[in-house]
Design brief:
The complex is a heterodimer of chains A (115) and B (109). The relative contact order of chain A is 0.33. With 115 residues, chain A is mainly beta. Helices cover 0% and strands 48% of the residues of chain A. By secondary structure, chain B is an all-beta fold. In chain B, β7 and β8 (72-77) form a beta hairpin. In chain B, strands 2, 4, 5, 9, 10 and 11 form a 6-stranded mixed β-sheet that branches. A 5-stranded antiparallel β-sheet of chain B has the order 1-3-8-7-6, with no helix packed on it. Chain B is built from no helices and 11 strands. Chain B starts with a strand and ends with a strand. Classes of the chains: A mainly beta (115), B mainly beta (109). At the A-B interface, β4, β5 and β10 of A face β10 of B.
Chain lengths: 115, 109
């Protein structure tokens, strides 16, 4: 079956612009996660959705970052007034349910470059 | 602050060699330990989910062990092949994964 997909695969933008990154989870997966991987680091947790609601957004770095999942399926990560430090690989994952040991399936990521 | 460390950061091995990497994690409040393989331009691929102390799992030439009391997991690759070249990530936690920085493996033909 289809895995997690993310669009675009690459996004180049200018400092100060607004960007949206999209994630299509595996059909039927109720949990959705966003991570960010900066150069030389492992992926870092940003936000977790259970259904339509953000169950944990403690990883969002500041109020320029916002994510939605209005129908409990597709999610969009929105970044306002982008800064050069936002340049990173943004990964999305989904899982059937949330819980210890439950496997997260990842998409290929969106590489964001802020010039 | 919970920290997950992986070593080595990178390594090159010859085709046919066996190799292993280490993932260290907090030994208290253990939930689960995940191993992923991430090839360039692809999605990270789940290899193993390990939840019990003493767990040993195998998938083809790749295997992993878990010691929750001392807080480490080993990943072994037997008879490395060029297609094994990738970054191997471990992640600790429940839903909020804490990742190590990965081990970048290059298998030379």
């Amino acid at each position: 079956g289809a895995g997690v997909s993310q669009t675009p695969s690459n996004k180049v933008t200018e400092k100060g612009k607004y960007v949206e990154l999209r994630c299509d989870p595996i059909s039927g997966h109720t949990a959705l996660y966003w991570y960010r991987q900066s150069l030389g680091q492992g992926p870092e947790f940003l936000i977790y959705f259970q259904g339509t609601g953000a169950a944990d957004d403690s990883g969002l770095p500041n109020d320029r970052f916002f994510a939605v999942r209005p129908e409990g399926s597709v999610s969009t990560l929105k970044i306002q007034r982008t800064e050069r430090g936002d340049s990173a690989m943004y990964l999305c994952a989904s899982s059937l349910i949330q819980g210890a040991g439950n496997e997260q399936f990842f998409g290929p990521g969106t590489r964001l470059t802020v010039l | 602050i919970l920290n997950v460390e992986q070593s080595p950061q990178s390594l090159h091995v010859q085709e046919g060699d066996s190799t292993n990497f280490t993932c260290s994690f907090p030994s208290s409040n253990f939930y689960a330990l995940h191993w992923y393989r991430w090839e360039t331009a692809k999605s990270p691929e789940a290899l193993f989910v390990m939840t019990l102390n003493g767990d040993e799992k195998k998938k083809g030439r790749i295997s992993a062990t878990l010691n929750t009391k001392e807080g480490y997991s080993y990943l072994y690759i037997k008879g490395s092949q060029p297609e094994d070249s990738a970054t191997y990530l471990c992640a600790f936690g429940t839903y909020k994964y804490i990742f190590g920085t990965g081990t970048r493996l290059k298998v030379l033909a």
